[in-house]
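Exercise 4. Each item below gives a protein and its sequence. For each, produce the structure-token representation.

Item: Phosphoribosylformylglycinamidine synthase subunit PurQ (Sphingomonas oleivorans).
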Amino acid sequence: MKSAVIVFPGSNCDRDLAVAIREITGSTPQMLWHRETTLPDGIDLIAIPGGFSYGDYLRSGAMAARSPIMQAVVEAADRGVPVLGICNGFQILTESGLLPGALMRNAGLGFVCRDVALCVGEARSPFTSGYSVGEAIRLPVAHHDGNYTADPETLDRLEGEGRIAFRYAEDVNGSVRSIAGIVNARGNVLGMMPHPERLIEPAQGGTDGRRLFEGLLETVA
Ligand SMILES: NC(=O)CC[C@H](N)C(=O)O
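Answer:
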């Protein structure tokens, strides 16, 4: 599987994400600096990691979304290439318009860093094919801007079209309708605040993140 991890100034989960992809898919992703303007030919996965791109200045993900590489990412997403945005990656995907809504400051105004209970949503996507709908899983979160919001029409559309990928099963950050992750209409773009790449082997305390990459591998490769 040919993949790339996009690296922005301030990304800090890029290497963890690359390790997860390498361990699970057996192929090493290319680390792609945000100033690049093209993606490798025949790419199977674009991964946008967590972190604090541009120090979260202006709004988390807002400046990274205007990076040179993002035009190629948007074009690839429109062609159906799988795009995975985790945490700051999710923020970058909403800021770039690939996913609807916005991630505001957590309701409690604090940085939340712990494992949380999640419920797998109804989204049909290569990214969730390794889980069953309604399954209870746990994944770590680490963010201060994870409070997902969108206007009621958008939320109804997301639910009506079955585009909720993950919901919080507990109160974490105030996200509307407990949304922790969503996909685009085609299902090839996933944004999620929890970190699947941090829970891929028992030594990390669990493997609930592993199946996201395994499901993708089965569908894509
Ligand atoms: N781990 C992360 O990606 C952090 C995301 C973001 N900068 C926030 O704190 O909201």
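Check: The mean pLDDT is 96.
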